[in-house]
């Protein structure tokens, strides 16, 4: 695969653009149909995705190894991309397979373009983004609702002009549901006062209200299983059909220091005719209402200055936010501390 990060990043840069050495959601699978070339920016780096004739998805750093031109501007040749600048051809594993201008050139046969491991799960592309010390992928345990056959889900994808940390912290802030989303179809119930606690789990922690359950956005579980994700549950009114509450698996991926790609899988544990009813109601009625809630989050977060967290006055409801910040800061500093050791090897 080759090194994924070529310059030493500071802890601040890692916190801003995303931790390395873990998996991230990259884009919906539907954005990369056969024969297309799709460019994305993730973790402050540019990438190109394409499919081979057999449907296999490939992901490369969007950089020709010859002069650094964007491979995404080139030609799709089935199992490889040809750079538009000088025709250099790179396959899906990042190997230079042809230099048309100088056949037999010493670039040929070398893997010179990073090609991260990828998976397609529940309609989304996941990729492992490592550094020099961890080029091979960390073990990945996928979110339960995305692999449970008894769960039916829909992926909602958006890009927000807000730092990654704010998008993630918004998910660790259940209390905003009782205010910002008070008029929504599913979060109109419950009180506007609460006490919270953190409850540890083997894969992360719960941040939950101690005095209310099943009335609003009352709890969230943060999980680190090779990929960072949250799981939460929100009650449904009877008009949403059979199946009980609906859940959300949320993942935020940094585009760069100022923008975030957000992935929300809305799901219910339903089967048979209940599954069919849920999917019909979602497409015809509920999806539009869910997008209204997401828009409320987007508008609020995009209006916050990027240094808003430098002038805060936090209180008990923000314990989940503080816990997440400390975790990411500690992990970022660990990655920075390893860099000098790596350079000495």
From TrEMBL:
GO molecular function: dioxygenase activity
Pfam families: Rieske (PF00355), VanA_C (PF19112)
First-level EC class: oxidoreductase
InterPro entries membership: Cholesterol_7-desaturase, Rieske_2Fe-2S, Rieske_2Fe-2S_sf, VanA_C_cat
Rieske domain sequence ranges: 23-127
SUPFAM superfamilies: Bet v1-like, ISP domain
EC numbers: 1.14.13.-
Highest taxon of source: Bacteria
Keywords from the UniProt entry: 2Fe-2S, Dioxygenase, Iron, Iron-sulfur, Metal-binding, Oxidoreductase
PANTHER family: 3-KETOSTEROID-9-ALPHA-MONOOXYGENASE, OXYGENASE COMPONENT (PTHR21266:SF60), IRON-SULFUR DOMAIN CONTAINING PROTEIN (PTHR21266)
Listed name of the protein: Aromatic ring-hydroxylating dioxygenase subunit alpha
Species of the source: Sinomonas terricola
